């Protein structure tokens, strides 16, 4: 155990140093700039822009769709440039770091609490709720992803530590998956940058939403179906057929994962890790492939899979945060406010797993994934319209945005409700068993 | 028959960690302009946001852990 910890710390240190050394390759892609507007001229649709890290200012033209008078001055902005009739034009401009009001602070605390609860319970970072929630508060996508990742790894560390003490974490499996996930992240980041460069923010949002919906519906649907079958009296200890077949693959190196109770070729864990990393890089959610992957492909139980995922989340989150930090995109206010709530939530969720059956974890995971799929799906027509692929009138746009928002609220509410209910039931049962056992002891010694 | 010894609730620990954690939050937010300027400078300054979350996680995590114990919420005991 000590050796594994030393290995983890060693790998993290090397990665951090490598990241700093290779920092030239990081940062926002071409066509996207960060900086400050020192003046704007609504009459000719131009603005004086001072790019971050540069001393001189340039005059840039805004596209017709931007309301020049609403552009904030002397506040850090993120702009997306494109060519129109051979001239470079600002196609999008958003404030990088939103203004803080009391409602936003309270919202972030609450979102953090429930996101953490979910994370501690099902192993998924909660990012799928946190990132869209931050974006609906006005935070640009890249800043939302960066700030969330910076909160994810310490929260995962606390959650993983607690669940390790409950004997649920398979450290070796976690580290193995994390290594291939990191490679997957690199691939995912390149894809993300290419899309942002070629299609701008709207294209990026569309890509993210498509991937979200596809993964959530397919994987979430299956997990939920499996949980439903088990709740009707299926055998929880039965190893899924796919896992059994893959465990027969004997390509070395063979690895034995003690806590998961599985011996498997390292090459089987490779695609799951890669997919987790790619998803994490593109939509900042990795657990939704990682956890079902460990359940259905490796053959671990839902409780071990969700606990082990926290180790993967910690390693990847730490490494990813360094990358984002180097690009100056982490809004520490958002990170710390979410952390304030989620450090409570994650520990609560973690101890909750000791009171429930394995399939309860699957029910929560599946239900949440499906509801969030609806939430993201509702936004797809809007992004398609932004890119000019279809028409969405203002009314329709309002309805879709409403559906998206309330579905997200429903996802959080459902998760909180099921987890709280399962925990209360489990705790009451445990108390009853405890007092029954004490009575029996008393009678025996009577 | 083994008597169940009840652990004392960690009121003191919860209070101490709580005070330090909340004070740290207040200090940070009262100097938010300065903090944001340095924390978003990029490059080696990345150590600032990353390092600070370790600090807050340790303190606030311990605070949360002790509060949960004080409330009486703990993992199921294995008999």
Description:
The complex is a heterodimer of chains A (446) and B (79). By secondary structure, chain A is an alpha+beta fold. Chain A is built from 13 helices and seven strands. In chain A, the strands form two sheets. A five-stranded mixed barrel of chain A has the order 1-2-3-5-4. A two-stranded antiparallel sheet of chain A has the order 6-7. With 79 residues, chain B is an all-alpha fold. Chain B has one domain. Chain B is built from three helices and no strands. Chains A and B meet through helix 4, helix 9, helix 10 and helix 13 of A and helix 1, helix 2 and helix 3 of B.
The gyration radius over C-alpha positions of chain B equals 18 Å
Helix content of chain B: 55-70%
What is the quaternary state of this protein?
Answer: heterodimer
Overall geometric form of chain B: elongated
Overall radius of gyration of chain A: 24 Å
Whole-number count of domains of chain B: 1
Specify the biggest β-sheet of chain A. 5 strands, mixed, barrel
């Amino acid at each position: 155990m000590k050796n594994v910890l030393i290995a983890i710390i060693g790998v993290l240190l090397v990665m951090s140093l490598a990241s700093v050394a290779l920092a030239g390759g990081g940062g926002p892609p071409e066509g996207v700039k960060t900086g400050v507007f020192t003046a704007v001229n609504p009459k000719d649709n131009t603005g004086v822009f001072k790019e971050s890290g540069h001393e001189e200012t340039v005059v840039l033209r805004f596209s017709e769709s931007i309301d020049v008078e609403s552009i904030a001055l002397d506040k850090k902005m993120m702009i997306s440039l494109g060519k129109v009739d051979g001239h470079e034009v600002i196609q999008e401009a958003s404030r990088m770091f939103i203004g803080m009001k009391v409602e936003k602070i309270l919202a972030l605390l609450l979102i953090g609490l429930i996101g953490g609860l979910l994370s501690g319970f099902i192993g998924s970072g909660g990012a799928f709720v946190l990132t869209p929630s931050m974006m609906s508060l006005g935070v640009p996508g890249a800043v939302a992803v960066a700030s969330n990742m910076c909160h994810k790894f310490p929260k995962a560390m606390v959650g993983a530590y607690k669940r390790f003490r409950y004997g649920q974490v398979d450290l070796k499996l976690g580290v193995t998956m994390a290594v291939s996930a990191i490679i997957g992240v690199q691939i995912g980041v390149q894809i993300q940058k290419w899309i942002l460069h070629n299609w701008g923010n709207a294209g990026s949002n569309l890509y993210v939403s498509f991937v979200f919906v596809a993964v959530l519906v397919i994987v979430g649907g299956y997990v939920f179906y499996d949980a439903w079958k088990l709740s009707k009296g299926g055998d929880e200890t039965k190893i899924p057929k796919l896992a059994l077949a893959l465990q027969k693959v004997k390509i070395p190196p063979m690895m034995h994962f003690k806590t998961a109770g599985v011996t498997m070729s390292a090459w089987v864990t490779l695609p799951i890790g890669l997919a987790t990393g790619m998803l994490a890089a593109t939509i900042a959610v990795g657990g939704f492939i990682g956890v079902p992957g460990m359940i259905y492909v490796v053959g671990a139980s839902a409780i071990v899979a969700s606990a082990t995922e926290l180790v993967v989340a910690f390693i990847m989150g730490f490494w990813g945060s360094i990358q984002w930090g180097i690009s100056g995109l982490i809004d520490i206010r958002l990170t710390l406010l979410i952390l304030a709530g989620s450090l409570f939530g994650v520990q609560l969720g973690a101890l909750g797993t000791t009171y429930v059956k394995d399939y309860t974890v699957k029910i929560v995971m599946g239900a949440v994934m499906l509801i969030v799929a609806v939430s993201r799906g509702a936004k797809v027509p809007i992004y398609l319209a932004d890119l000019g692929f279809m028409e969405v009138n203002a009314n329709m746009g309002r309805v879709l945005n409403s559906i998206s928002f309330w579905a997200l609220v429903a996802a959080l509410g459902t998760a909180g409700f099921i987890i709280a209910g399962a925990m209360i039931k489990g705790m009451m049962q445990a108390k009853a068993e405890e007092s029954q056992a004490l009575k029996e002891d008393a009678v025996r010694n009577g | 028959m083994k008597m169940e010894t009840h652990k004392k609730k960690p009121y003191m620990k919860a209070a101490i960690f709580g005070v330090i954690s909340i004070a740290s939050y207040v200090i940070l937010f009262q100097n938010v302009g300065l903090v944001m300027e340095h924390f978003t400078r990029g490059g080696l300054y990345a150590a600032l946001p990353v390092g600070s979350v370790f600090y807050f996680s340790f303190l606030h995590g311990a605070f949360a852990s002790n509060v949960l114990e004080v409330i009486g919420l703990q993992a199921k005991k294995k008999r």
